[in-house]
Design a protein that fits this description.
Elements: H1 6-14, H2 21-28, H3 35-59, H4 64-86, H5 97-103
Keywords: Membrane, Transmembrane, Transmembrane helix
Organism: Avrilella dinanensis
Transmembrane segments: 12-28, 40-61, 67-86
Length: 113
Amino acid sequence: MNKVTKDGKLAAVITHITFIGPIIAYFINMDDKDEFGNFYIRQSIGILCIFFVIGALIGAIPNPWAAYGFFLFVFILWVYSFVGALSNEYKLLPVVGKYFQKWFTFRKNDAKK
């Protein structure tokens, strides 16, 4: 993979902060289109999609333990991705990470993959 730049790492870290992090990171990474930043923006968008889509389904279940387990699962995915961004490593999320990299190609240099 490519060398990690300062702006790419900044975008990769910011994308993990709050729900608007991917939007902020997208604009930070807009000019130089750093691959490291794009990689983690796609991972973070995928984690948010899991959170909202499956979270809505889990919310319909009256058992609170299902929700606790789900939120723990999403938190573990988030920590795994965040640690990868902090350590300058390209860490795909287990099982779903490769799909997130394919599905969320929202910029011209992303479509090359």
